[in-house]
Amino acid sequence: DGGITQSPKYLFRKEGQNVTLSCEQNLNHDAMYWYRQDPGQGLRLIYYSQIVNDFQKGDIAEGYSVSREKKESFPLTVTSAQKNPTAFYLCASSIAGGIGDTQYFGPGTRLTVL
Amino acid sequence: SQQGEEDPQALSIQEGENATMNCSYKTSINNLQWYRQNSGRGLVHLILIRSNEREKHSGRLRVTLDTSKKSSSLLITASRAADTASYFCATGGNTGGFKTIFGAGTRLFVKA
User: What pLDDT band is residue B1 in, cutting at 50, 70 and 90?
Assistant: First the structure.
């Protein structure tokens, strides 16, 4: 089965803690993305990576960090510097990082800060 | 502000009726895509229309693009209860780099 997976599905964090969200794809896609979705709203881009060992900030990168050491994996760390991290986080991938490439999404991780 | 903005924000129809959702955007684009999201799930790609295309069909879906008005519409014909979801337009632009920018979505509810 080809696809993109995210874990965990639900995550609870205490204030002041860092947490890492996992994203793995076996589609052999070069580009990967992290989005944040708040209730009733669209997606906002946090970070993206067009190739291994390279990534760029999106529109709302403050308080987040990523790594891209392997083509298949693009983990997102939500740090304690992110003031309002409770949200639904979506990971996506595309064949390449071209303009308007079709993106394939994982099922999402819902993060709640207690 | 977001590139794509959908209208209406919410739409409730009876099964069998057609559903029309609109998307407006601000700058020039290379293509426009429509995605669907079931509640609490990831997005699923539905259809892509390029800037030099005016209309595209896929099954019960019909997408139009009017680049002069910077707008697109998604028509779902003969809707089913299973079509209940949020629908997002996403623009891939000439400006602003490679990013795909998503609108806030239209919530469609199809009553059985």
Answer: very low
